[in-house]
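Researcher: I'd like a candidate sequence for this fold, 290 residues long. If you have to choose between options at a position, lean toward the conservative one.
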């Protein structure tokens, strides 16, 4: 909660003007959102209108700090041209939504007629490469390429236990419980379950019974990698939802050690203005995900 007192400078001005000037990181869209929820009090009374305020008014604003834009946030741009933007997303930030990676991208490119849009997503606590389209034409082409699996994504996962099979492609079935924000994995088809295909290859084995996997998914379902690896006894270290708390504590990890480290363009169908990307690959020079 933030408490502010209106000074003479803002006497007779609108509420949004005062708050946008005095709460660092507040955006107009976020202001509208908290206003709709009646999370603003003026002199002790909740309001859902952008009212006129006066000198001496007491303003209480209920807003989590993690929703405010970080002024010192710096985009880690891996590649950029007139059509696309490849950004390295840190852990702890959503791809879309309030105070998301897309928010920062839109702030940086606010002068463009078309604001760059993400072509795919990563979980909040998964780091790595996110591809943005900088034009409507590029967005249409890239969304189609992802749908046709002509853009490959590879992940590094730091997991507990070392599999006997050092490389395999696994087929299973995933059910998404939207209410619980949780997914379940089945080895056999079942009502409401969708087919998933996950491949892995052991890249590095460690003496502490952990290893690094290179993971690729043919089907991009919610939490697919995290849930599927946990299902076969390879929980990702730091994963509080599908992993094991005692393991996470042992390795002092509070977020899943999963990194989308590679984007590979493997176009088969027509790619129009993006033909020059065919065969290209963008990689992060990382191995460990912690």
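Model: Candidate sequence:
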């Amino acid at each position: 909660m933030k408490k502010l007192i209106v000074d003479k400078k803002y006497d007779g001005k609108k509420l949004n003007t005062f708050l946008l000037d005095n709460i660092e990181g507040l955006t107009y869209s976020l202001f509208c959102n908290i206003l709709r929820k009646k999370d603003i009090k003026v002199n002790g009374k909740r309001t859902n209108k952008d009212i006129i305020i006066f000198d001496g008014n007491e303003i209480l604003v209920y807003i989590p700090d993690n929703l405010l834009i970080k002024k010192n946030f710096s985009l880690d741009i891996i590649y950029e041209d007139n059509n696309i933007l490849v950004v390295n997303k840190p852990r702890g930030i959503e791809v879309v939504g309030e105070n998301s990676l897309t928010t920062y991208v839109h702030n940086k490119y606010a002068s463009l007629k078309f604001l760059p849009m993400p072509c795919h997503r990563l979980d909040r606590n998964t780091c790595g490469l996110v591809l943005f389209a900088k034009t409507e034409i590029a967005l249409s082409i890239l969304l189609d390429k992802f749908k046709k699996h002509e853009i490959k994504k590879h992940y590094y996962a730091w997991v507990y236990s070392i599999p006997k099979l050092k490389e395999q492609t696994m087929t299973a079935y995933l059910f998404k419980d939207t209410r619980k924000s949780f997914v379940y994995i089945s080895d056999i088809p079942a009502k409401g379950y969708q087919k998933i295909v996950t491949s892995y290859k052991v890249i590095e084995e460690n003496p502490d019974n952990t290893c690094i996997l290179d993971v690729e998914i043919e089907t991009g379902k919610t939490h697919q990698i995290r849930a599927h690896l946990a299902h076969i006894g390879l929980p990702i270290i730091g994963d509080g939802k599908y992993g094991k708390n005692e393991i996470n504590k042992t390795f002092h990890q509070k977020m899943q050690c999963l990194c989308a480290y590679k984007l590979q363009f493997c176009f088969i169908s027509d790619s129009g203005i993006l033909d020059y990307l065919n065969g290209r690959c963008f990689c992060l020079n990382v191995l460990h995900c912690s």
